[in-house]
Model the fold of this input.
Amino acid sequence: MAVPIRYDPRAGFSLIELVVSLAIFSIGVLACVELYTTAFRSTSDSLDYTQAVFLADGLLEETMMDDFLMVSTDSGDFGTSYPRHFWELEVEETDQDGLLKIHLVVTWTARDIQKQYELTTLHADREIFGASLL
Done:
């Protein structure tokens, strides 16, 4: 003989309902943690790229202000303020007399991945092209 099961709405939740709701809640919390981690990583990458752009721009401006710019290759770092960023600068001649090509590469390491930002520009000799072009 089958015993009828009575359902009492005041009895509360069953164990299976609690386990399922806890599993759904855990999945939601894990998704939020992953979202936070991804946002933090993206913000960190943006900061590194922004620093590289400003450091490269400043070094390039310093280089172009030099009145006696010559064909050369140089490298270095940005001091203790930016210990992860390094630079390589190459100044080379072009086909045009008095026109130099400046190539600057800023590199840094983030999460064991080496990244870089490159700038290339031309610099005209004031004596040959005249001050009006600069």
Remarks:
- The domain at 17-133 is CATH 3.30.1300.30 (Pantoate--beta-alanine Ligase; Chain: A,domain 2).
- Residues 68 and 99 are 13 Å apart (CA to CA).
- The beta strands are 72-77, 86-93, 99-110, 113-124.
